[in-house]
From TrEMBL:
GO molecular function: histidine ammonia-lyase activity
CDD domains, sorted: PAL-HAL
The protein's name: Histidine ammonia-lyase
Keyword Lyase: yes
Family, as annotated: Belongs to the PAL/histidase family.
Reactions the enzyme catalyzes: L-histidine = trans-urocanate + NH4(+)
Species this protein is from: Mycolicibacterium chlorophenolicum
GO BP annotations listed: L-histidine catabolic process to glutamate and formamide; L-histidine catabolic process to glutamate and formate
Metabolic or biological pathway: Amino-acid degradation; L-histidine degradation into L-glutamate; N-formimidoyl-L-glutamate from L-histidine: step 1/3
Upper taxonomic lineage: Bacteria, Bacillati, Actinomycetota, Actinomycetes, Mycobacteriales
UniProtKB keywords: Histidine metabolism, Lyase
Keyword Kinase: no
Compartments where found: Cytoplasm
Main enzyme class: lyase
Amino acid sequence: MTVTVGIGPVSFDDVVAVARADAPVVLADDAVTAIEQSRRHIEALAADPTPVYGVSTGFGALATRHIPLDMRTALQRSLIRSHAAGSGAEVEREVVRAMMLLRLSTLASGRTGVRRETAQAYANLLSAGLTPVVYEYGSLGCSGDLAPLAHVALAVMGEGHVRDRDGALHPSAGALVSHGLEPVVFAEKEGLALINGTDGMLGQLILALADLDNLFRVADIAAAMSVEGQLGTDRVFAEDLQQLRPHPGQAASAANIRALLADSAIVASHQTPDCTYVQDAYSLRCAPQVAGAGRDTAAHARAVAERELASVIDNPVVTPDGRVESNGNFHGAPVAYVLDFLAIAVADLASISERRTDRFLDVARNHGLNAFLAHDPGVDSGHMIAQYTQAGIVSELKRLAAPASADSIPSSAMQEDHVSMGWSAARKLRRAIDGLGRVLAVEVLTAARGIDMRSPLTPSPATGAVVALLRRHVAGPGPDRYLAPELTAAVALVQSGAVVAAAEGAAGPLQ
């Protein structure tokens, strides 16, 4: 798959393909035309004695200085070098590639005033699989993701470092030469156009939503397995009951659980007139309400991301009639808010998953299963400490749910006196989503063990397919074994989409 970048927005699928599948990138003809038209406006202004911000002035609090023509190449070079001030761990390759594509998409709009060769350099770097080294800290989520984007621009200049497809580290200058590419000397306005965007936080939002598409389905699978393994009822998931509260995410989650529990001999075994059990605990009964609210949160976040994809984020911006105007569109608040909102939903979804897992382990609540699902309780501890692992992660996710966007800190001598902290919101959401996948994996692994211990009763075809998938990687109930590798195997199956694929193979597509 090749991703073509034109004057319109790239799609979610485009971002994921470039970020995670190394899709090559080409500039469309309409983008080239738009870029060249807007560049002509910048070149006309560059020769004008009247100062124009970003073209013939300094930046931020230094915008009052007019920069003479013979110093403007140095101005752009100095901007990138000084702003490439990141620190900390390296940012993940997929995040950097998503950020680069999104910045290229804005350049292709023809509203930033860069030259064609500068935009082409970004496409070339992506297609060559060369990823600039970007560091964890350096963005306040306002005036763009400044330091992260500056590290990318630094590599385009032939400075700093990049990693190749195999992850090997190289000086940018040598890597460009070895791939038949040349460094770019930035002209007026270009340095600013390359760093003044919300691309880092937006790229991470899009990747998070792709991950959550999988994990929401896993959450429904895990909930169904827990309902089944704990002899819960499926009657509460009936469509007419769900329609009494018509949230779309709730309806989708309940429909999934109904499909996953269809034809379960375990469920049928206790749906008899002599069953006196009245209702299940909230963590079982309210699974669609919690997972559904998470889905609806993600739907809102997706709508924000789609609007941001269709936006032109730069300051100043070249308008269609040729004006170069300052603006505040670089402020990351819209993206920051939904990144934080998603972190709340992720923490709560993990929390209810951990509660369902804990019920399996308690003889007072697990309806006849061994304590901690141990083979020989007392000699064996079963899944006791797997729940501790879950609890530790859930506690961390609750801390990560505290909003980054509620904070602000002034910068640039108080010129930039209110910022979004959207990059920080994105970084903690990535950590939270990783934690959610691990928590759900423990529930799936524990529920599968509980279902196996209900033998000779058999699970539904869908949950049975998930148990069978796990058993190809993890042995069934028995004396205690080294548990960490089994958790690692379950996490891989959850995060890769294999658990969803196994369930859908029996139940059909899940919502």
